[in-house]
Sequence to fold (157 residues):
Amino acid sequence: MIRMRDVLSEIQKLLKESGISYKKIEHKPVYTSEQAATVRGSKLERGAKALVVKADGKFYMLVLSSAKKLDSKKAKAILKAKGFRFANKEELMKLTSCKPGAVPPFGNLFNLEVYLDKSLLNQEIIDFNAGRNDVSVEMRLKDYIKIVKPTIDEFSA
Fold:
């Protein structure tokens, strides 16, 4: 039996230790980016959607605006990969202890290399599900970049 991590607590601890201000938002469970934006009362564009992909046998986290779709061809080229697919539910749970839709954009907590799409760069504030489908975190993008240190590139459509 895999011991479940409390990802929300890990995020809060990381932000607190880094001296970063954020807002925790509790809401009814959501399963799509559109539902999340609605319950948060925020624009879809500022949602930070975290996707876990497997490229040539290695897992990565790709973070893009919830208003965008992943361009798999661009992502594959950036990762210099031949094989490319999304992590399945079991892999996602094993890697992150999160259900689909609840994965936060903190790949650093899961030993995943993080790539941030340029689609989020014009957002001052980002928000995302924080390890659960019923809790979101809102924070400044520049603070997110400072603690996650993602590689910034373009892979959205």
